[in-house]
Amino acid sequence: MAVPGGVSRDLSSAETGEFGAIVTAAAHDFARMARLILHTSSVQNRFESTGILTAEIARQLAVVGPAARASGIRIDVRRDHPSGRYRNLNVDVPQYKYGDVLARARIRIDETAISTGLILETLKELPTGSVLVPVPAAGNVEALSAVESPRGELLYWVRIRDGKIARCHIKSPSFQNWPALPLAMPGNIIADFPLINKSFNLSYSGCDR
Amino acid sequence: MIGDAVERSLRSPKVLISVGELLSNAAGSRMPDVQPDLLTDEVARRVVAACPTSALKVDESAGREYLVLNYGDCIACSRCIAAGSGAFRYAERVDRCGVRKEALIRRWDIQSRAEVVPNEPSLSQAAEQIRALVGQALNIRQVDAGSCNGCEAEIVALTNPYYDLERFGIHFVASPKHADMLLVTGPVTRNMAAALKNAYDAVPSPKLVVAVGACGCSGGIFGGSHAVVGPVEAVIPVDGYIPGCPPTPSMLLTGILQVLRPLSSPWRRRRS
To answer: Is the ipTM of this complex over 0.90?
Structure first.
């Protein structure tokens, strides 16, 4: 579990191996399912040209994450503003130009394979040593940080006063992407609303932060 | 290709958790349990100092010292397990799901190294009552009142083929107007308080409310924030509490069924 100063406990090499095996097996199953889905004609019929978010609108609303990359905007915090380990990793950022449900599905399928590669590569090069360092009680500071979450750019702003968190603001990718959802709807049949909605994978919890 | 997949799926062995395995199963929840025979005064003070949410306390009454563990405050951070030198371990079962608030609290007499609690309901008894419930239908509306999405992820898992909530006649519905029970997660943020009250008012009577997770039970790590008005009981009446951060699907289902248990149970719900 991540805690201030690191993680609460280290992994043994046996656990690392087991974790790698689980990730590999899950990625393999996922790839098989994904192939099945993309090769099914009824799915193609539903996904293709449904819920198109144009690159122009996506850019105007500053859409982030897989939804942006499916509309031809190649952005990824891990590649564009790398920190920590991402400075030494080559993050492949896929992109599709159509902006429909199919493109958003394909982006996630591609990214699952890419993420699996990143996890396995990182497990191989896991450094030894302490996993938790004491964090000095900061006096009065403010900090801003962005990471690439599965839904896109996740931004945290924290203000510390007298060593305690006084204010914290989170801008989640769901908050950023929600306004784009209605603009992907016009011209689609009502029955496709849930499909388009889910293709953006927005989180209610993420929006109210 | 679809045909192949269906055929494969029909051939594969059925994977479904049995009722016996499911009930009170807290594996993976990281909730703590106490080995009373290893409990000492020193261990008690150490774990109380390690607990970031004051879920663990030492309580003195009538000259005796008790270690008090309130599952409703516990955020499953594992610090007591690291600090407890063997006296604390991960709970394999947590019965305190869907119970009234006082029943989330466990007490151990530190001197005699024994737990002070009413008798726990046996699993077979609970399983029997579930059998009695099968065939009835319960409709649940889930309300996210500012949760981190952790509880939602576990609630969604209830509907998968492994936990298969629908075998108990329980369904999630899309409107509070169709619901018998509200399953409320989150500490109730200022922004969600009015919506939660409206959702409660829209549920036809009789209705049940279950508060889910450390946030729903006590406000969790967000309690006391300027953005929070909860916990759930501060906004609407609550019939049962499911602790955990987040609770596992097994704990959720145990809690939902526990709330429906007849009034003869020692863990019966009581609206205060």
So the answer is: no
